[in-house]
What we know:
This protein is mostly helical. It is 72% helix and 0% strand. α2 (34-56) runs antiparallel to α6 and α5 runs antiparallel to α6.
Amino acid sequence: MGFVTAILLLVAAAYGLFFLYDWVTIRFAGAKWSAVLFAVAFALNVIAVGLLLYHEIPACSWDVPCTLCLFAALICGALLMRSLFFCLPKGTYSDPEQGRKVYRRGMYAACRHPGVGWYCLVFCFLALAFHTPEALAACALLMMGDVAYMIFQDNYSFPRTFCDYDDYRATTPFFLPTMTSLRLAFAPAPVVAGAATTGASVAAAAGASVATAGSATAGASADEASEAYAGDVAGGGR
C-alpha cells in the first residue's frame, strides 16, 4: 500500500467517524457511547498526521526555510489545540445537549470555526517544509477532510445543537476573521451589571451585621447596668 493511499484511507475513516459522531449525538441525545466514536476518529487523525511526519521528516533538508516552516506548523498546532479544547466551556464535545447557546468569546468571536483555520495552516506549513508531491497530496487530503467536516457541522450539526446558531452564523464570519470580528475577539469581557456591586453589597451587609451586633452588645450592657442598680437599691445601697 502506498503512502498517499494509506493517508486517504485514514482520513476517510477518521472523518467518516466524525460525521457519524455528530449524527449520533443529535439523533440519540445523551448517548454516552458516542464519545467512543469521537475518540477513535481523533486517534485515526493523529495516526494519519504521525504517518505523514514519519514518512517525510527523515528526508527533510532542515535548512532555514524548512525549519521556520516546521516551527510555524508547531505554533499553529498549539493554537489549534487551544481553540478546540481550552477555549470552550467544559462539556462542549463530551456531553452535548439540545438547546445550548453558542460560545462567542475569544477565538469564537473572530470566526465560527477557528480550529479549521489553524488546522489548514498547520498542513500548509508542513507541505512547504517537506515540498514533495506525496507530502502535498497528504496535506491536501487532511485539509479537505477537515473542511468537509466543518461544512457539515455548520449546516447540519450546530444548528441542531445550539438554539442561537442562526444568529451566530449571521453575525460571525465562517472561518476567515474580519477586522470587526477580530476587535470583538480581543475586546475585554463585559461586566455583568449585578457583579460590580457584589463586593459593595457584601461589605454593606457585613457592616450592618457588625452594627447590629454592636447595638445588641450595647443593649445587653445597659440591661446589666440597670439590673445591678436595681439590686443595689433593693439591697439598701446608695
